[in-house]
Every structure is written in C-alpha cells, then in structure tokens.
Amino acid sequence: MIVFSNTTPFIALSSIGQLELLPRLFGTVRVVPEVAEECRAGGLIAVPELAELPWIQLAPSSSEISSLPLLELDKGEKHTIHAACEHKAELVVIDEKIARNVAEYLGLSVIGTLGVLLNAKRKGMIASFSQCVEEMQRNGLRYHPRLVERLKCECGE
User: Fold this and answer.
1) CA 49, CA 40: separation in Å to the nearest integer?
2) Which helix (H) or strand (E) holds 4?
C-alpha cells in the first residue's frame, strides 16, 4: 500500500507518544523532503528525524507544481499531495481541511490523525481514542468538537 503523510499527523502523534501507530497500520509511510524539513524545523512538539525512522521512505518532490488547486496550500501540503498523485498513492494522511478537500478533489483517499486513532482503537492498538485526543488537545492541537464527538461514538466511547 502506498501511503503518504503530511507534517501535522507526525506532530500530533509524536505529541502523545504514538508515532508508531503509522507503521503498525500502514507499513512504510512516504514523505517528501518538504515534510521532513518542516518536522526537522521543530516547534513546541519534538518529532524524530524522519529520515532515520526505518519505516519512512523519502520520496522525491517535484520542483514544479502545475495543478492550480495546489497553489493555495503550504509547501508541505502541496508537495505531499502532488507526490501522492504522481505515485498513485492509495492513501494520504493529512489533517488540514483545505488540503484534505484538494486531495479528495484530485482523487486521493484521505485520512486524518483522528482517523488513524480511530483505526488504531478498532484494532486494539490503543486503549482509548478519547484519552489520545484529549492529550493532543492539551498539547495544543485543535480538532472540531463535533468531529471528535462523532468519532467517539463510532468507537463506542
């Protein structure tokens, strides 16, 4: 399965010590250099050096992005979606609403960090979806409350 991820899911899952959910659910995860750079740049939440993780595959990104919808996105989102299209990815892990809409418009299947947690909960990889989301929120990540409530109901919490 070809899976690409943008920056925010790495930050969100790192914030709760659950980064290993990505390879457990998807095996190899591809990232473009722009995403690796954004993670390396750091912030309040430390993300491991992506290139050093055995389950990360660095995928080249194009210097020219020609698709008009992509021009409105940030560098990581733009290059992730473009590379996912070029490599015919089965899935893109991305949280930002506009980027998700663009990816879906371009024919990509999309899942966000909350979807990753929901799948992990269903497979018994985490004890509580709610606790993970609450911890991410305490770490400064924001998710729409109605979406969180809907997903809690989906996993029986």
Assistant:
1) 6
2) strand 3-5
